[in-house]
Every structure is written in structure tokens, then in C-alpha cells.
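Standup notes
- HV: blocked on the assembly model, inputs below
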Amino acid sequence: MIAAKPRSVAIVGIGSTKIGELWDYSLRDLAVESGVRAVSDAGMSGKEIQAIWGGNMSAGQFLSQEHVAALIVDYVGLSDLHIPATRVEQACASGGAALREAILAVASGYYDIVMAAGIEKMTDVGGETASKILASAADQEWEALMGATFPALYALIAQAHIEEFGTTPEQLAAVAVKNHRNAKDNPHAHFRNVITKEQVLNSPMVSSPLHVLDCSPLSDGSVAVVVTSAEIAKEFTDTPIYVKATAQASDYLSLSDRKELTMFESAVIASRNAYQQAGLEPTDIDVCEVHDCFTIAEIIAIEDLGFFDRGMGGRATEEGETEIGSRIPINPSGGLKASGHPVGATGIKQVYEIVQQLRGEADKRQVNGAEIGMTHNVGGSGATCVVHIFSRTLS
Amino acid sequence: MIAAKPRSVAIVGIGSTKIGELWDYSLRDLAVESGVRAVSDAGMSGKEIQAIWGGNMSAGQFLSQEHVAALIVDYVGLSDLHIPATRVEQACASGGAALREAILAVASGYYDIVMAAGIEKMTDVGGETASKILASAADQEWEALMGATFPALYALIAQAHIEEFGTTPEQLAAVAVKNHRNAKDNPHAHFRNVITKEQVLNSPMVSSPLHVLDCSPLSDGSVAVVVTSAEIAKEFTDTPIYVKATAQASDYLSLSDRKELTMFESAVIASRNAYQQAGLEPTDIDVCEVHDCFTIAEIIAIEDLGFFDRGMGGRATEEGETEIGSRIPINPSGGLKASGHPVGATGIKQVYEIVQQLRGEADKRQVNGAEIGMTHNVGGSGATCVVHIFSRTLS
């Protein structure tokens, strides 16, 4: 799949804000806090950064602010250096897509040290407005204008999975229960409360079979990472985390055009490409952050990525196979469900967790001996999927 | 400025819609037409395209449609191939920034054949709404919320240029007159009517000293180019146009933070980097498309790019030095002013013109013997500038 041999790339710094309803932060405050923390984590002053890529889904609609990357470079204090800054938007996969551009830029040889940041400020508008804005990631003419919201689209997907594979509401609930339990130990998480299966099943129905506790929240937040060439990564850290694969794939925007509802072809193809780039198999992955915007999305993700056979994701989750310390720990951060879903930042937030895991710095969430990690970041109802594989070692 | 030796890159196909008020085109129609034309121009079927980058400023606000790149890949008929598609937004420099990502991706070795497209559908909303949407490219908190629109911001810049250098309204008008004259021979241009200096000066005042005929229009349109590695470009065309330099720079988002109003540091720095990458001087450029969103912007651009001394851009224009056949032909397409300004597509539209010029296919607009061309694409009031240099020859 790769035309010529690109340069190897590593992550040497990470920074995150708290994720949640951050009433006392503006968009620019968020950018500053994550950016400064990432640079500081890398042991840099900030002046070393040669370019920035910023993932953001919809500051235009949320805040009447486009040109967000220019705002980021300005407010992190780098305008005097006039470095290039570029916003990437790929709906809820904007963060993963921004990281990908940063990786390609370093791999190309044009840059040695760059930053990829994700940012979203969602709670300055009401819930109904936010729902409409998020629906603009779907096909506006064929889905959103007809009244479809994301809970409704994912509910259709869940119904199909239930019909085809016998997946149960209890299995869906098991995703939420696990992710809340993991988020309890994540200091940045939006929700750190432990919940029970009964609480999920008794929470208000949003769109059958999805209860409110099957849904990820609207969150504010920003996360940034510093990306360098593998050759110079060691100048900044003893534990660079290497990028083993960067892959992205598309699918039809509207669900009605898809061949199947119970799998995301974009995820299947992106992960297949990623495994091929890295020379790895699903069984080689020690820890994975997947895009659980709804509980059904995690179940489909762990099937699409090859961790479980099709249709077995619900049962595997219910049986505890995706818990920390079990077969394949999924979303040790708490995932989108519990650690939060600031849409444009989510893809970088996943990388933040995997870097912590591979460095062995994940504290009570630590997956013992994690050497290889993966992130799976979805845009819309699967029209985009970005997959990355990271490793403690280069070779 | 470049860390390691990147692969050389070329453009082998171009396609454009008509630019204008295209009432009978939707966003997706525009994408299809430009994409199919670009692929066809390259002598491809379309299946060769391995990835797409789409420049778009604000389909979210104009049409409630984010995730635009996924929509493009879907509607051009490539969803079955599941190729990655990524939207780039850098306000009115979105097109140039998208091309840049495509170039970096091919330079990196990850891809051999990709497409960069720009697209905007602006005329489905009223003029006042469009003005507010465009203002979201400025600093919302410090400029737009205070009532500043783009004509007002550029009027401040024009007033400063008049004050500092004695630039006259007649010199501003000369930009519009030249660009309309050039657009007469551009079949895709929004406006193909010749105008006089008197018409400009007598047209309604928008924001002093800028009359309505000093301003570029709201346009719909889409333009696409096919980008390949230089090694394989010859498989598709006898006249590949090589990318000699790709550069981008930032500046403070808000005018109030800038050191100067009468130059854009982003343009000065991006062009300096571009000249350095290409090993060229301003006198080596045979033809240039600059970002004349307002007439004053062209005058500042030709100074920033080093074609004329600071403060001399107005006089040079009035004396005809930027006309086709003169010292340095600027905007043979008609520029933003007359060939139109579909904001997210404009940066690629400029490249379309330069490729035609360097191929010798610009018909009555042809700059004789053009070997080296440049594009200058500005975001907002100069917080972003993207500069590319192209050549008929690789070495």
C-alpha cells in the first residue's frame, strides 16, 4: 500500500486538558493548556515546533469561528515564528486525521518536529443545537434533513446487530459499565462515576435500543501531541513512542448506501492496511482505544479490528474479555463514553492514552507489559475511519 | 527550512467547474464535475486515485454539512475503493492548504497518485448571512463580534496603505480594471465584462476607500488537480507541471496584534521560504496568481512577494506593469475579483490557471514563454498565506 519508503516517526510529548463541561475555558484557553503541556512533556520550550495540525469538527457552527488552526498558533504564542498551522476536519475523526497529516509531514522530510492538536468547545450551545451540529457529519440531504440524528443512526445499526447476531441490551450496557469503571482512574475523564448494568438499562431511552447511558457525552477539551522523526526523538525522551502504521479509509456517507450496517468497511479496511504496514496481526495488539460514541460502536469496532469474530463482540464484552488485565483491554481511558467526546479532540485523546500506556505511565489503568497499542477513530456513522498503531520499539 | 530530501511532485491533471452563481448545482454536483474533469484531463479512469484532500472553508455554516471530504469521495464514485479523504480548512486559503497536504503526502512516499480539490457553495444563503460566515475567518471574539466584516478589515488596511505610501483610489481601481479585462478571456470566470476606472470609482462605497467594484464576489465553484510523484508523472502526460516549492506561514489572527497593516508577514515569510526551496528569485517568476479578495490585497501581495518595492504596488499596477505581456503578469485568470472567489476552492483555482499557463494552454490569456509560475493564497486578513512555485522543468 505504500509507494516509497517514508521516514519513521515518533511521539515525544503529550498534553491534555480536563475533558468535560468546561464553563470557564474558551476555545483558545483549551488550545493553550494542551499545547503548553505537550511541549513541556517533551522537554521543549515550544520554539522547536515547526508546524501545527489542528483537528476540529465544527467551531464554525459551535462558535462562529473558522480558521481555528490560525487561532491555535496565535494563542499558544507562536505567531512571532509564523509557523504554518492547518485545520483538519473529518467529523469525529478530525483528531486522528490531524495526527495523520502531522505524521505524513514529518515522514515527507519537510519537517522534523511538529504538533498535532485536537480541540472542541461544544457546551456553549444548547443540547438540541449541538445535536443538529453533530448531525452535519451525516449526509445532510439524505439523512439529517429527514430528521436523523446520530443516536437515531446508531440505533438503526444496533437494531441490525441485534437482529443479525442476537446481541442483547445487557451486552451493550456492559460496554458502558466497563468504560465508566476504567474512567474512574483517569484524572482527565469527563465522568469518573462507576455505573451498573441496571442503571444503564433503566436510564431514559434516547433511540431504541440506546439508552442515555449508551451514549457518549458532549464534552469540551483539547489534547496535543508532539511528533518528530524517529532519528531525533531520542534527543527529547528516553521513551519515544513510535508510529508503526497510519491508515485511513472512507465509506458511503449515508447509511442507506452501505452494503451492511453491522460492520464499518472503513474500519475493516483501515485496520487491514495498518496491520499490513506494521507487519502485525490483531493478536499482537496489547491495548486499544476504540471509538465508542455509542456502546454498539465499541462492539462493532472490536469485531472490525479483528479482535473478535463478527457478531461476537457483545458476548466477549459481557464475559469481560475487553477489560484491563484480560484478553485485549479496550478503552482503558474510559473511552468516549466515560472519558468524554470533544469531537475534534477525541482522536488525539485516544493517542494520549496509548502513549501513556506504552510508556508505562497509566497508573491504576496500566495494562501490564503493553508494548503495542492501537487507536480507532471514526467520523460520522463510519464514512471515515482512522487507525494508528504505536510501539515502544522502532523495529 | 527542509529537514530531509522529500520526493519531487508534479501536477498531471486539472479540472474546473464554471465559477459563479450556480443555482442549478449542489455542493456534490460541483465536486463531481471538477473531479471527473481533472481525472479525465490526466488520462485516468479515476480508480488510480489513492487519496483525496478537499479544501473547503465553511460548508458547515453555508449548508449544515461538515465531513465534506467524505461527501466528495462518495459523490465522485470512489467509495467502493474506500480511499482516504481529508478536509482541510484554512479560511480562504483552504484550497492552497489542501494542495499542500496532497504534496506532502506524495512527497512522504505514502502515496503516488492523489487528488487535491477545492469546493465552496456560497450562494444558497443571503448576502448578509454570507458576510457573517466569512467573518468567522477573522478573530470572532476580537473582530467579528465587534461588527468587523472583511470589507471593513481590508478597508483599514487600505487606509493605512494610502496614509503610508500615498496609494490612490485610482490605483486600487486599476487592479479591478485589469482583472476584469483578463477574465474576459477566461471561459470559467464569474465576471467576463470589461469595466472602466470610472465605473469602479463611481460604484457604491462598501467601506471607504473600497467600492463594491474593489471587492471580489461570492461565488460557487470547485476545482481539482491530480498530484503524482515526479517519477511517474510522465506516464500520464507529456507536460507535467512540477512543484518547485510549497510554503505556508501564519500571523496573528487579529489585525490589532500585527506589527504592521501594510504588509502581510505571512506572505513575506511564506514566499521567502518558497524562493529558498526553489532556488529562485522574484525576477525568475514569469506569471503569478495572487489573492486579490480586495483590490488593496493585490497591491500588497505584489509587494510582499518581492515583485515591487514596498509602497510601489499601486503605481506599478497603474502603469501597467502587472498586465499580460508586461514585466510580471499578475492574475491572468482575472483573479478573485473577476474570475470569482469560491473561498475554499480559490487556492486550487489559482493553480489551475498557472498549470494552463505553464502548459501553454491559456489561449488569449497566455503569458508567452511562461516557464515558472507562482500562486499566493491568503486566509482571512493574512493570518495564513500559502505560496507555491511551479515549473515546466524538474531541475
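- HV (later): unblocked. Chain A is about 35% helix and 15% strand. Chain A touches chain B through 77 residues (CB under 8 Å).
- Next: hand off to the docking folks.
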